[in-house]
Input
Amino acid sequence: MKPEILTNLEQIQYLQWIGESQSNCKKLGKWTAAWRGEKIIDVGGLYLENGKKQGFWKEIIQNFQKEAQVFQQGEYIHEQRKGTWKYIYKNKEIGGGEYNQLGEKNGKWLELWAGFWEQSQVFYCGEYQNGKKVGVWDIFYNFDGKNIKIGGGCYDNLRNGIKFGNWVEISNGFYYDSQVTYNGTYKKGKKLGQWDISYANKKIGGGYYDEVGDETKVGQWVEISDGFFGSSQVTFTGEYKSGKKIGKWDTWFEYIGNEIIGGGCYSDAGDGIKFGNWVEISEGFYLDSKVTYIGQYKNGKKFSRWDIWYKKNYGDQKNEMIGGGYYDDEGCGIKLGNWVEISEEFFSSSQVKHSGVYKNDKKIGSWDILYRENYGDYNQKIGGGCYDEVGDGIKQGHWVEISDRFSLDSQVTYVGEYQNGKKIGRWDTWYKKNYGDYNNNKIGGGYYDEGGHGIKLGNWVEISDGFNRLSQIMQNGEYKNGKKVGRWDIFYKKNFGDYNEKIGGGCYDEIGDGIKQGYWMEISDRFYLDSQVTYVGEYKNGKKISRWDIFYQEKSGNNTKMQQYILVFIFICKFSGGGYFDDKGDGTKQGYWVEIPDSFDHNSQITFNGQYKNDKKVGLWVEMKKNQRKNFKKIKEMKYDI
Output
């Protein structure tokens, strides 16, 4: 079996598979998985002595990440999937189908799109025959709980899995704010003729494929950028010849109006090679991060001086040079000497740059991290450290690093030591306030093992993923071999507050599996000043059981159960937020529930009230909203199958 290679950065950083391997490196026995130091409940299965999967397995999808925690579960027989397999998302079955005795998909399937995540819940619905798609396949987008048909087309019935006729397909980056589709014709599985590109049902581009049927682009095309969305409506306009870009291509950005922001020339020889002067956009280009690179190409490679420019979206809105450096003059595209580069998340409130030296395209020696505040005139050094002098880009010694979400409201840095590219020893977490005394204070940290494996050990104080001025959330507890064990507490420090208030927590088992047990008080994923929502209940072997209550604390500080006033005929009934999970420990919701949406906050206090049966909504559900008189009123009714 070919080994799986992780390309998902979150999985590389946070996913850990746990189990035994034989001397021949083949896996054996029970294997489980952990995510960010916590065991993923029920994920994994059994390997036989020959290293093949056997029996019931629960697996993560290839795109598994924080906002795409989707699982597949079903039966393996000697590494082949057999029978019914299901997709599970948020403890609900959302799709699946059957495998035949040869391990091939067969019959009706509801499949998840490869790019499925919270804001891109896209499904493909159609039929398989012996592992090949046949007949009509529809594409659905689940938005606000409703499945909307957004595309689809036909496969031949000869079981070749070949597309034909008219198709509407979605872009690779399709999501709520980037609803881009492609509309055109297939012949024998190849695109031909006119294909149009639409955004939010409005044609924005497209072009022509030749009639030969080898998917060769010809003539004038308008294409979209890879990161196209509402605030980054970037298109490229130019000509194709025999499938290769030729001549001048312009880069356009539409926001209120449409303007040329860059471009350059391709060789007229039809080899698709860039040459001469170019103005290119950054990978993360959008309204609040209008960054461009200006320089020259030679034989399709960058050479000599390239400058980085940033056009502000505030104040004087001028375009200014903020960085750059040199590529080798031989045209190999190799960075050399001093460079000033921007961070991957560069935007108006996170104007972070990295300054240092390249040698043969690898960072060496001392590199500084610089930061300029909104409306600021100068760059201040906020961090940095050293890469080894060998030229393999490995961090060594003392470093001050910034958090992944560093910005004006979240100026978080981490301070500690690297050894051969791995964190070792004590690492501290610092937070510089952008209000009050503007002090830089140590707020957390802990220890990594001295062996250079990057494993957390002992007591740690960690910040939440979304830590910022209005959401100063920290967690305090113990790690054992990189897994959370024992008691962990959750603390919250209010804006302008002087102390950390304990607002939740609970226990992990002492074995070191990262499994939650017993009574827990948890916070919502987007907990902040205006949305202080907590969930209180019990875990058993990592699964919620029995009664769970939802609490909401107003800015005033009153922490009360959410109360519902529902008009039923002429009676007013009073209910608490929350509901029941069954006591079997499979995390299944049962009976009456009062739930809140992810967007719940002070200005949008909405609840949904109704019945669950085996984790599925049934019967009448009522949407309630709090009005200015602080009463909840019914605004909508929804009916689900019983």
